[in-house]
Design goal:
Rossmann fold, alpha/beta, binds iron/sulfur cluster, binds thiamine diphosphate, 310 residues, binds magnesium ion
Length: 310
Amino acid sequence: MSAFNAIGDEREIDRDEFTPGLEPQPTWCPGCGDFGVLKALKQALPEVGLTPEEVLTVTGIGCSGKLNSYLDTYGFHTIHGRSLPVARAAKLANDGLTVVAAGGDGDGYGIGGNHFMHTARENHDMTYIVFNNEVFGLTKGQTSPTSPKGHTSKTTPHGNAKSPIRPLSLALTSGATYIARTAAVNPNQAKEIIKEAIEHDGFAHIDFLTQCPTWNKDARQYVPYVDVQESDDYDFDIHDRKEAQEMMFETENALYEGTVLTGRYFVDERPSYQQQKKELGEMPEEPLAERYFDDDAEWERSYDLLERHK
Ligand SMILES: Cc1ncc(C[n+]2csc(CCOP(=O)(O)OP(=O)(O)O)c2C)c(N)n1
Ligand code: SF4
Ligand SMILES: [Mg+2]
């Protein structure tokens, strides 16, 4: 029996199964928002009926990138900004896996920004969690693509001259089909949003506000927050692109003016890339890795291809 045969098994599971037995405790600083992501994810995975062996967590580099060290799923800690291409390849090679990609604001909106845009455009079926703490945490607090204008740090001692990126708007115009923002201070909402994102068939982007008390001088905890679905002050249709766009724009401005808006912003039913590849007959019917176990399989090996080009 290969590791993949476990996919599809039905049994009772709980969040403790996602806690590694041998790994050390998280090394995040006390009060770090990253704990909130880990907690919400550990609760969400069993609640959608997943077992650890059905999930792959792919992370970038940063404090956020340590997520899969503390989570007992398959894991791949990639290089800076490259969680999405690795996640895409894994999902294409084994469509049975539930893929969660994760990384920081520097990782996903900076160095990996190009991958973010195209993974959204192509609507790859996965959940992408961006830990947005508005700084480069691991490397000691440099200004990042989501740092506010005027933000002071070692790299912008006189104040940040750049305007921050608009993550929700960027996801929308790029083509993501589920877009939400949540915050580490709102664990129940975070868990529900992660569950919806995992169950969504297509690219689901979660901008997850995670405070960095060590390096973000303002040490914002993102409280009080407003849930746009719960509040009477906001009324928009998450299936209407134009209304979602206006709400995202307001949300992105509000964050830097001191009002933290969170919730679901956009959901669309456009078929995922995997779905479209299946319709074209271009998706493997079994995980590609299974072929290593099948001596009779006829498949081209990379060195056969090299031979042909001699
Ligand atoms: C190609 C490359 N450039 C730079 C670095 C150094 N580096 C490591 S983590 C990091 C920033 C992390 O910031 P972010 O993605 O926001 O994650 P956080 O630590 O805040 O969770 C940088 C610049 C690297 N590892 N690789
Ligand atoms: S440096 Fe900031 S982001 Fe990194 S673990 Fe500490 S509080 Fe969290
Ligand atoms: Mg960061």
